[in-house]
Write a structure and sequence with these properties.
elongated; six-stranded mixed sheet
Length: about 475
Amino acid sequence: MRKIKQIYSGQLNTAISPLGFGLLYLPTDGNNLLPSAYELIDMAMESGVNFYDTGHLYLSGKCEDHANSLLVKRFPRDKFLISAKMPSWMVTHEGHDAESIFYTQLEHLGVEFVDFYLVQSIMGERWDKIVDSPMMEFLYSMREQGVIKHLGFSFHDNAEVLQKVLKAEWEFAMLQLNYIDWDFQNAKANYELLEKHNIPCMVMQPAGGGRLTNLPESCIEILSAERNGVSQASWAMRFVAGLPNVVCTLSGMNSVAALEDNIKTFSDLKPLDESEFAALERVKSIFIDLSSIPCPGCRYCVDYCSQKLNIPGIFRSYNDCVLFDIPLVNFFLNQDDSTNPCRCTGCDACLESCPQKLNIPKLLKKCHDEANSNRLGFHKEVVYNWVDSLDNGDTLVLFGTGMIGRGTLDYLIEYNRKPDYFCDNNEALWSSEIQGVPVISPEELKRMAALQSVKVFIAVLQDKEIARMLNEAGVIYETRDSLNAK
């Protein structure tokens, strides 16, 4: 097996493998470790990986217990380094005590000390609440007693906030770094600030939560032309690992193939040359132009969602459609209650938990609206403009109660203008209601149109026959094509 050479860090007085194992994505059945998890850790240990990253809330709160089973109970304590985290957002709310969380972590990990301990996910307003808090005093005391060997933080904000955070007593920091976020999320400025303050940098999300291992074909062609036979993950890893102030790059490996690929990269680590940097710049430009949602899939938001939505899964489905030019109608395939973005209530409970500071409710609405527009064949603004053009006395009818008709109804409800009626050729639906809107027959529609001003939107895929029938009856109507043309 290839070996990864551990590198001694004078700043930390510790030998660390340049590749770290992030345990967030360990293979489990939901509660218990799968046998493949033990295989992965054995391979990693044998290859020389000695840094293992845990999180108090990772894997439904079981990550620290799993680290105990995989590492602490099976290997000598001096053969591996454990990192653990204090969830900063928890201790800023009443009912969560930093000391009790910390001692619970030690118990779950089964250790007497933690090699690297982080205040997790520091952001501006959050830092203002904890900078002089009892939590920081407690963590400093644990460091003085040797229970914490090295104290650091993970960070998700801009350089201005980072400048304030660095006034505290830190030994290392963990940043989200990858070649997309280097400029897109201004990670470069944060990295350079750590370098200026002589604070060693550890890297999380080097492949953007998997986004950079599943690139569109146009990007793959650029990288293959530059250096054929090299994985997309290797490009991402070499970008961050080649930065001089990076001491460890974390990877959430959940398969033997991913681990083997990373071992191959880090056992013979070569920094990117000028030509390779230029290739990544072209890839970055394409990727950013596609404007995918920069969600790394950390799942912090899921625990706070009142509807238990699989928010990262929704964003990944949307990104896949955008990146790989898949019709957004596919976004609705196999959708259930956990992956339906329209179930978001806008309660905003997820916002504080998001390290990327994404406006999650707004993005969920974007996913639904764009996918729905693709599915229906028009944007909602087209219908809104048409409704605005109607006279107050006009009776509004949607012809068709299927996918397009119901999608149009959702738009009109959102616009506070329900249609007066649905019309459908299906006799079984006549005299019924859909969300309070009565369904009438075509013959009743014709009689109604002879007596009053009726405006119809034909909300079906095959509209020509219905248009011919309404023409003959003198009923005024619009189709998707006619509205889109306006």
